[in-house]
C-alpha cells in the first residue's frame, strides 16, 4: 500500500515533524527530524525554527510519497524529488569467472 502524500505531509506538520517519515519507512530521517525539531524549541529560536523544520519536512515528505506513488523507490536519505536509481542491467557477478 502506497502512503498518501497529503497524509504524509500532514503527519510531518505535527509536533516532532517525523510521523510522515516513519510512515514512509525513513526511520533514520524521522529520528533526525525529531532531534532538529526539538533543538529548535530552545532559545533563541523558541519554536519559530521548529515550525520551519516541520514545514520543510512536510514538503519533503509529500514529494517523497509522490515518488513512491509514481513507482520510484526511495531510500533512508533521499530528499524532495530524489529517488533511488535502479540499473536496467545489473552487472553480472564475475566472482568465479563465469
Topology, pairings included?
Layout: H1 5-13, H2 19-24, H3 27-39, H4 48-69
* End-to-end separation: 39 Å
**In one word, what is the shape?**
elongated
Main β-sheet, in a few words? Answer: none
Query: Helix count, per DSSP?
Result: 4
Whole-number radius of gyration?
17 Å
Backbone structural class: mainly alpha
Q: Provide the low-confidence segments as ranges.
A: 88-98
Strand residue content: under 5%
Q: Indicate the mean pLDDT.
A: 85
User: In percent, how helical is the residue content?
Assistant: 40-55%
Spell the H/E element sequence. Answer: HHHH
Strands, count: 0
Structure write-up:
With 98 residues, the protein is an all-alpha fold. Helices cover 51% and strands 0% of the residues. It has 4 helices and no strands. It has helices spanning 5-13, 19-24, 27-39, 48-69. Helix 1 (5-13) runs antiparallel to helix 4 (48-69) and helix 3 packs antiparallel against helix 4. The longest helix is centred in the middle third of the chain and has 22 residues, at 48-69. It is elongated. The termini are far apart.
Properties at a glance:
51% helix; elongated; mainly alpha; 98 residues
Summarize the structure.
This protein has 98 residues and is mostly helical. The protein has four helices and no strands.
